[in-house]
Q: What sequence folds into this?
């Protein structure tokens, strides 16, 4: 019998993820027209978000003290992080359906961790449109930034950490479906709600909201804090500058918490079978 | 990691699984929590290379047992070991060594061609390319799937899909194959071909088979041993012939006479029902049908004859009511 090592490393999981995802991309490419239309449509719809901001600035000089290109930096970075995470999570949001149809049981008989399978299942690049659109806005906004080597590092880590934060939120809140399968709206309030909030400078909100977006649903780390550093601005709320470098920590913590919740969810499933 | 040959491949001891069910009770607020035993005091073991039929009525605990054997469900009591592993604790490593086919739920990817589904599984199980090609060629040939390889799964017939599912479960050379109702919904030809394939698989590779089924003919064709489960525990473990003897099961000869007649009288069989020219005669399942058929044909003008196999549910009901 083929006795492959029973404990696979995270790198191997990532490779398996990539291989499964690649097969799905190849399968989608069987219908190139539909693939292109989906991606373009997705890009156009999400592009309207930014057009909305643009129109707003036709009537305002600034938004809570932030100019259009500064808001574009916030919008572009959050949108990029969201598109990356949204692409990577694949089918996590549909975990409830997987439970109902018995698909999850099928997956549990395969030698790949459940989270890797669920995320890679039905992998799609439908977010390619949003990704492109966000990258264009972000690129344009970047041309106004006064770059230093440290700012480059912060910008790159911001995108990766932001994607991690969103990934963790999506996974974590999807786990509610292990207990009750009708909670998608509730979960969306935190995930997509959190994503929408990050399109604006958080200084438009009262301090209490900011505290919530820092410590409860930590989307403020997706773009707000690191962008303050990129733009060379002092924190309008007078919070310590250390927060502007803390995005990787927030990303890792969110991810860790999400994995813990996921494990608890799976354990609940295997112990109740419902 | 190879299994100890002196140990049974599947070992189940005093296995128990209870579920908490919440039930509304009239006249009371809220819900009552109740504990339901889906499986209890279940003990059996299966040696490598055996072909075992695991049968019982709906809701008897068959699926719950399979889920515990595959690690999908954690037992609430007792012990279960498969290939020396604890399924719920070592679910992922165990997955490489077992194959599972759920008859009514396909493991294949609906929108992908069969070939892509198989490729995905190769990646998941990390099957060596040479071994993968060899297995795929062989199963595709034996199960006659060559023409369907590039068809999306949703366009396959039930029989083709089942053969695809069985191939999918075998590509990684599992030691045990669990089959849950593998022939459900298949036509007679497909059923026969599938049984033949499973027999060959067991003979050539020594793959252990545990199958749940409602179709006694599956058991007759494949299994030397039957475990009957009812109300969550094993009520019979032995040969199929023994089951018929113990359950007092009977087969039915349906006779269409040319003209209406009073109930047929022949030795070894008795009339159960008469409806116009059609009569139903029952005779013991372990007896041969030939003398009964010959006696009827000799004494009456027969238009048509057919034999109905005993219904497994009836056999078990009989067995259970006798066992108390």
A:
């Amino acid at each position: 019998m083929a006795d492959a090592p029973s404990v696979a490393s995270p790198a191997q999981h990532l490779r398996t993820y990539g291989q499964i995802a690649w097969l799905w991309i190849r399968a989608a490419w069987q219908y190139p027209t539909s693939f292109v239309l989906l991606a373009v449509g997705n890009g156009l719809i999400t592009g309207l978000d930014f057009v909305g901001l643009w129109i707003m600035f036709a009537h305002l000089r600034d938004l809570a003290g932030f100019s259009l290109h500064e808001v574009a930096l916030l919008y572009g970075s959050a949108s990029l992080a969201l598109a990356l995470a949204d692409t990577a999570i694949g089918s996590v949001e549909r975990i409830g359906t997987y439970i109902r149809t018995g698909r999850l049981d099928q997956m549990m008989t395969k030698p790949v961790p459940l989270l890797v399978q669920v995320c890679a299942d039905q992998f799609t690049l439908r977010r390619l449109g949003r990704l492109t659109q966000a990258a264009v806005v972000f690129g344009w906004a970047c041309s106004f930034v006064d770059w230093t080597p440290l700012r480059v590092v912060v910008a790159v880590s911001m995108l990766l950490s932001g994607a991690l934060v969103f990934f963790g939120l999506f996974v974590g809140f999807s786990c509610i479906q292990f207990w009750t399968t009708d909670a998608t709206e509730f979960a969306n309030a935190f995930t997509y709600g959190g994503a929408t909030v990050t399109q604006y400078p958080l200084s438009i909100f009262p301090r209490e909201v900011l505290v919530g977006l820092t410590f409860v649903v930590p989307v403020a780390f997706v773009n707000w804090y690191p962008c303050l550093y990129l733009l060379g601005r002092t924190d309008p709320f007078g919070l310590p500058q250390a927060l502007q470098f803390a995005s990787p920590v927030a990303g890792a913590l969110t991810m860790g918490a999400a994995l813990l919740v996921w494990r608890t969810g799976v354990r609940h499933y295997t112990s109740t079978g419902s | 990691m190879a299994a100890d040959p002196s140990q049974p491949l599947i070992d189940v001891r005093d296995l128990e699984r209870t579920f908490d069910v919440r039930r509304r009770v009239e006249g009371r607020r809220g819900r009552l929590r109740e504990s339901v035993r889906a499986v209890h005091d279940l003990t059996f073991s299966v040696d490598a290379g055996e072909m075992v039929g695991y049968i019982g009525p709906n809701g008897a605990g068959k699926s719950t047992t399979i889920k515990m054997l595959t690690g999908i469900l954690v037992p609430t009591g007792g012990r279960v070991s498969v290939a020396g592993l604890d399924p719920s604790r070592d679910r992922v490593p165990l997955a490489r060594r077992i194959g599972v086919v759920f008859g009514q739920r396909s493991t294949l990817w609906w929108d992908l061609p069969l070939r892509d589904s198989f490729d995905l599984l190769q990646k998941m199980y990390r099957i060596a390319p040479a071994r993968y090609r060899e297995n795929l060629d062989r199963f595709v040939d034996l199960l006659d799937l060559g023409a369907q390889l590039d068809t999306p799964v949703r366009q396959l017939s039930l029989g083709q899909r089942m053969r695809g599912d069985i191939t999918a479960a075998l590509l990684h050379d599992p030691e045990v194959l669990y089959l849950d109702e593998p022939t459900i919904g298949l036509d007679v030809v497909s059923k026969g071909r599938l049984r033949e394939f499973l027999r060959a698989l067991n003979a050539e590779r020594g793959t252990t088979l545990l199958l749940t089924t409602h179709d006694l003919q599956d058991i007759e064709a494949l299994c030397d041993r039957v475990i009957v489960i009812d109300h969550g525990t094993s009520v019979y473990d032995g040969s199929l012939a023994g089951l018929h003897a113990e359950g007092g099961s009977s087969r039915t000869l349906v006779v269409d006479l040319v003209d209406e007649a009073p109930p047929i009288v022949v030795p070894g069989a008795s009339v159960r029902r008469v409806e116009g020219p059609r009569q139903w005669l029952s005779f013991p399942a372990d007896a041969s049908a030939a003398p009964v058929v010959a006696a009827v044909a000799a004494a009456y003008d027969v238009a048509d004859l057919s034999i109905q196999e005993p219904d497994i549910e009836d056999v078990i009901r009989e067995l259970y009511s006798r066992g108390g």
Q: What stands out?
A: The mean pLDDT of chain B is 88.
